[in-house]
Amino acid sequence: MSSLLLSLPAELLQLVVLESSTPTQKALRSTCLRLGLIATPPVFENLVIDTRNKRHVSKFLRNLCSRDGLARYVQHIHLVSFKLPRKLLSLGKEKEWTNLLATAIPYMTSLKAISCSASEKRIFTNTALWRSLSHITSLSISSWDGKQRKSTPNLRLPGLTDLTFSGYGCLEYASTLIDTSTSLTSLSVQHSLHPDDRFDPFSPSVLILFRGSQSSSLTALSLSGNLSLSVAEVPSLVPRLRNLQSLSLNMDFVPSEFWQSLRREEIYIEEKFALTTWDAEPAVFDYLCSYTGLRHLVLHIKEGGGGDGVKKVTRRHRRTLCDVDVQVGAS
């Protein structure tokens, strides 16, 4: 290691390490004690675990919790699968691994977020693991393919503020999480069509997500994909959105009554408004022109007109808009 680098002031040396890529940080950490102390926290801040390599992961987790207190630096856990399994794990081995993860998490005193792919969704049925996650603030479940269940486990995350849920399976798990997470401020749900592209005439209702929740703490909501909202459901949904500042909808159809209800309840989106749909109803533009203060506007209208409405909206918010992304008639 160059003596010139080590001669830098501590603040500058720390900046060099923090601005380096993860591989470089790992290399710097192994050079000397001074750089090791600086590089250790960022190296362990984001923990990526290849869930298919159970033997390696088990050994790593044991070492993480037993040596040098490295677990305390972990802020984000990413459970991913880099390769397909050669053979299916037995239920006993799967349970043993998830229990080990549940034991390791309490040592991660700075843990804020966990992301998990559908291939590892069984961890969310592990009661011990779920209890150990009770303090996290962010949860992301991707590629969900779960089928309808008669009951869901007691998924309770009292400190959860950010939930991302994507896949084509049933929405019972997301609904339960939303119901029990009274501090939730950001929700993103992407519900896809079945991957074999077969036609499915049934689109789950948006209201399923809020079936048990009466909280109105949401400030950011993003909904996309195979979801529906009927006129009859609007009065039950809108009161839950009274604190909304960002709204992103990518749906085939949103009824005019939804926009009229937002306007009537004086729920004005000021941070970001994003809408992707086939044909925007005039009520959309009436709503957007009923207030001022919008900072970010995204409008993608696949068919039909809307050019005049867009001009009125941009003029209405011209003093506050920071960026505008408008595509009309481009399917």
Could you explain the architecture of this structure?
The structure is a single chain. With 331 residues, the chain is of the alpha/beta class. The chain has a domain of 76 residues. Helices cover 32% and strands 19% of the residues. The protein is built from 12 helices and 11 strands. The protein has an 11-stranded parallel β-sheet with strand order 1-2-3-4-5-6-7-8-9-10-11. Strand 3, helix 7 and strand 4 form a beta-alpha-beta unit. Helix 10 packs parallel to helix 11. The radius of gyration is 24 Å and the shape is globular. About 3% of the residues have low confidence. InterPro entries: LRR_dom_sf (IPR032675). Keywords: Signal. This is F-box domain-containing protein.
Order of helices and strands: HHHHEHEHEHEEHEEHEHEHEHE
Question: Judging from the principal axes of the Cα atoms, what is the shape?
Answer: globular
Percent helix range: 25-40%
Low-confidence stretches: 83-91
What integer value in Å does the Rg equal? Answer: 24 Å
Count of individual beta strands:
11
**Range of strand content:** 15-25%
Strand order of the largest sheet: 1-2-3-4-5-6-7-8-9-10-11
State the separation between the terminal residues, measured CA to CA.
Answer: 55 Å
Q: Figure out the total of helices.
A: 12
Protein name: F-box domain-containing protein
Signal peptide: 1-18
Organism: Armillaria novae-zelandiae
InterPro entries: LRR_dom_sf
